[in-house]
C-alpha cells in the first residue's frame, strides 16, 4: 500500500491520531472486558502517540477515550446541551461516533429530517464545541443515509 500511496502523490504516511477498538460493545460487554486490554496494551506500547478509543466503559478501566452513540428524541438533545460539561476531567476524551434524533415512540430513525430534529441536533452539537477540550469529534449518523432504508 505504501507504493500505491507514493504513486498517487503522497510520499509520507498519513498521521493516524485515533483508533477505535471494537464497535457497540455496550450491547454485550462480557467479551470486551478481556478483548479491550489485550488490544489496548499491545497497540499502545507499539504506538504510544495514538489515542485509543473504547466503545464502552462498563467492563473496563477508564480508557483514554470512549465512543458514545446517541439516538434519542429531539427533546433529549435539547435537555442535554450541557451533558459533556459534567464529565470528570481530564479523562476520558469522548468521540460521539453516531448521533441523530428519533421521535418519541419510534424505534427507527426518522425517514426524513424535521426542523425540530435539525434544531435539536444543532443545539447538541454546540455542546460538543463548548467542550472541545474533551470532545474529539462528532459524527452525524444520517449524513450518508439511503432514503430507501437499505444497507
From TrEMBL:
GO terms for molecular function: alpha-L-arabinofuranosidase activity. InterPro entries: ASD1_cat, GH, Glycosyl_Hydrolase_51. Residues 2-89 form the Alpha-L-arabinofuranosidase 1 catalytic domain. PANTHER family: ALPHA-L-ARABINOFURANOSIDASE 1. This is Alpha-L-arabinofuranosidase 1 catalytic domain-containing protein. It comes from Adineta ricciae.
Amino acid at each position: 500500500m505504501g507504493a500505491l500511496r507514493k504513486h498517487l502523490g503522497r510520499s509520507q504516511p498519513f498521521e493516524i491520531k485515533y483508533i477505535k477498538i471494537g464497535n457497540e460493545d455496550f450491547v454485550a460487554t462480557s467479551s470486551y472486558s478481556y478483548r479491550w486490554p489485550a488490544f489496548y496494551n499491545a497497540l499502545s506500547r507499539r504506538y504510544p502517540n495514538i489515542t485509543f478509543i473504547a466503545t464502552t466503559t462498563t467492563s473496563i478501566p477508564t480508557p483514554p477515550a470512549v465512543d458514545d452513540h446517541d439516538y434519542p428524541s429531539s427533546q433529549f438533545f435539547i435537555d442535554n446541551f450541557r451533558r459533556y460539561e459534567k464529565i470528570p476531567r481530564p479523562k476520558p476524551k469522548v468521540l460521539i461516533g453516531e448521533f441523530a434524533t428519533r421521535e418519541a415512540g419510534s424505534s427507527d430513525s426518522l425517514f426524513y429530517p424535521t426542523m425540530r430534529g435539525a434544531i435539536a441536533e444543532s443545539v447538541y452539537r454546540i455542546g460538543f464545541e463548548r467542550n472541545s477540550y474533551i470532545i474529539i469529534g462528532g459524527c452525524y449518523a444520517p449524513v450518508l443515509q439511503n432514503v430507501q432504508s437499505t444497507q
